[in-house]
Amino acid sequence: MIDNTQLLGHLMINKFIRLHDGQILNQMPDPLPASCKYEKVEGMLLGIAIGDALGATSEGLKPFDRHRLYGEIRDYQADRRPGQNRPAGLGTDDTQESFWTVEQLLDDRGLRPDSLGHKFCARRIWGAGGSVKEFIRNFKDRHLPWYTAGPESVGNGALMRIAPIVLPYLRDPHSSMYADAAIASMMTHNDFASNATCVALVHMLWELLGMTSPPEPNWWVDTYCNITKDLEGNTKYNHGGGILSEYSGPLWHYASEVCRDALKRKLTVEEACGSWGSGGHLFETVPSVLHILATHADEPEEAIIRAVNDTQDNDSIASIVGAVIGALHGLGNIPERWVKHLNGRIRDGGGGGQVFRLLTHSKHVFWLHSQHLKTS
Q1: What global pTM score does this model have?
Q2: Of 87, 96, 189, 259, which is least packed with CB atoms within 10 Å of its CB?
Q3: Which residues contact 302 (CB under 8 A, 6 or more apart)?
Q4: Which burial class, exposed, middle or buried, applies to 199 when counting CB atoms under 10 A from its CB (0-12, 13-18, 19+)?
Q5: What 8-state DSSP symbol labels residue 344?
Q6: How far apart are CA 211 and CA 208, in angstroms?
Q7: Residues 287-310: what's their mean pLDDT?
Q8: Pair 69, 58: CB distance under 8 Å
């Protein structure tokens, strides 16, 4: 494990990172219970790739248009749009960046942001977002240090790849896990909302790995807001879309308002996401993820299916929902057909299956080997 708490402190003192201090940053995560099996970690990691691959071939379509082309998507589809040739079961940048993060964590036995930055710049990213492209220009082409290369962005590109951050801490919980989440976010999306949301999701994943049954519906928005309120603070965003027209304020407050209202009115996922939007902006992604989980966390397959069918940025939203559902329910509760037909490729050239090999390697390094070290 690499302890990045002092590094985060340095970044905050010198205002390199857009993040307020919060209690969670100094909090030691509770050890995972003895009943927690690696199957839950496998579910979390494969959930990223499965959700991404299910949504990849209809990414960006509005739900109505997607349904017109594909009907209800419940399995991997070939891309039917003109000029597209993405095969069924292959992911996008969500899977690539998430599993390149896994690779870097394995290489260094913890987060080294400079090393991760070089990994993001070394290979072609399938459908890289604008913020990641700007990071690459700054870091690779302009030779800026990693801690100044990330643009201020409220996109979901850091959130979609943040789940692997928990890996080095599975057998050795430490507050550095939260520092890692913030640092990994700021590299490409150095914004209060993104940095705070990534810390919150990592905390929620950790809690879910230790749960044996789904939390009650309000847990999702309550936990998210309790974490992000301090970290994001009262940052003012002017958000003109969605249910609260001409909103001005922090993301955590917006998410609290719209998600609680949607739950109270018992809105379906399609109705709720249609009311606030479901694109790649965090003001759309975060409420969409929280509402899907609040209404379908007890139905692993249906939660991912609703993310794939009822949202616009469906590959990223489904990859986030997939990670959460996998952490909560474990690999055994994710449909076997999705696992069997997942391509698992994360770079150009070669065959598929790289995702599965990294899964096995991660188990040996972060689960079995760490357990041996602690008991020897």
Answers
A1: 0.96
A2: 87
A3: 296
A4: buried
A5: -
A6: 5
A7: 98
A8: yes
